[in-house]
Design brief:
There is one protein chain. The protein has 270 residues and is of the alpha+beta class. It folds into two domains: 154 residues, Roll (Bifunctional nuclease domain); 95 residues, Pdz3 Domain. It contains eight helices and 16 strands. The strands form three sheets. Strands 10, 11, 12, 13, 14, 15 and 16 form a seven-stranded antiparallel beta sheet that branches. A hairpin with a 6-residue loop joins strand 6 and strand 7.
Length: 270
């Protein structure tokens, strides 16, 4: 076991000098309509571009659990990874998607170890790195040139309550009967905010608010919310109308607002 831990934390030189990277949001997860493979979508707020990353079914489930804020009664693999890092007196500084070769993405988890100045870079599949970032609230970055290489894809959102989107510092889901009861939402149509951070939080958006419109367009589900956000030019404002306690409110958020730290968005369940 000691040998395994030593190898895990051994400093690497493969990615010692990173190319220019940009911060991105892990926006949503679904399926590639052409292959049926799970896919996670990263969004660059600065340019408005997106990067699809194809992942395995188990990793997709782990990412979906984190986006929805589900806490399992016993730790799953990525929960264990996060706990091990903490126990070893380290923290995840960031995760970086570093390369795309032969249709395969590469990533590193950058660890800051207590008492050491130099970051330790651990080779990782992007799917594992992203699942870990969501559990540790760590920034996600992508090498800029990879965004320009983004392949074409056909995104299919999950059905019903499985839909979830993170954008502009907000996590939104479909208002299930349980959420309607918890937040006394009545019959308002839209998407429910399960977490809010950064500019959106500073401007008053709170957990339990129902977003009904984006730039005047009615929002029926999280996929529509994401599409509306993507349709706004990066330097423009996104006008968001939401309802709280039956009263409509409107705020404006820059489309290129920097990503906030990712984290568990929904209600934790035992």
């Amino acid at each position: 076991m000691a040998l395994v831990i030593a190898l895990l934390l051994c400093p690497t030189t493969t990615h010692a000098q990173f190319e220019q990277t940009v911060p991105v949001e892990l926006s949503t997860i679904g399926l590639d309509g052409r292959t049926g493979t799970p896919i996670v979508v990263l969004r660059d707020p600065e340019s408005g571009g997106v990067l699809p990353v194809w992942i395995g079914a188990l990793e997709a489930q782990a990412i979906a659990f984190a986006l929805h804020g589900v806490v399992m009664p016993r730790p799953m693999t990525h929960d264990l990874m996060a706990s091990l890092i903490t126990e070893l007196r380290a923290e995840v500084e960031e995760v970086v998607v570093t390369d795309l070769r032969l249709n395969t993405y590469f990533a590193v988890v950058r660890l800051r170890v207590n008492g050491e100045r130099r970051l330790r870079d651990v080779d990782s599949r992007p799917s594992d790195a992203l699942a870990l970032a969501l559990r540790t609230g760590s920034p996600i970055r992508v090498v800029r040139r990879i965004l320009a290489m983004s392949p074409e894809f056909e995104f299919i959102a999950p059905e019903g309550p499985n839909q979830v989107v993170q954008a502009l510092g907000m996590t939104v889901v479909i208002p299930t009967p349980a959420l309607r009861k918890e937040f006394k939402l009545g019959e308002h149509r839209g998407v429910v905010v399960t977490s809010s951070a950064g500019v959106a939080r500073d401007k008053g958006v709170r957990r339990g608010d129902v977003i009904t419109e984006v730039n005047g367009k009615p929002i029926a589900d999280p996929a529509a919310f994401f599409a509306a956000v993507r349709a706004v030019k990066p330097k423009d404002q996104v006008r968001i109308t939401f309802v709280r306690e039956g009263k409509p409110r409107t705020i404006e958020v820059p489309a290129d607002v920097p990503p906030t730290k990712p984290g568990r968005g929904g209600r934790a369940v035992a």
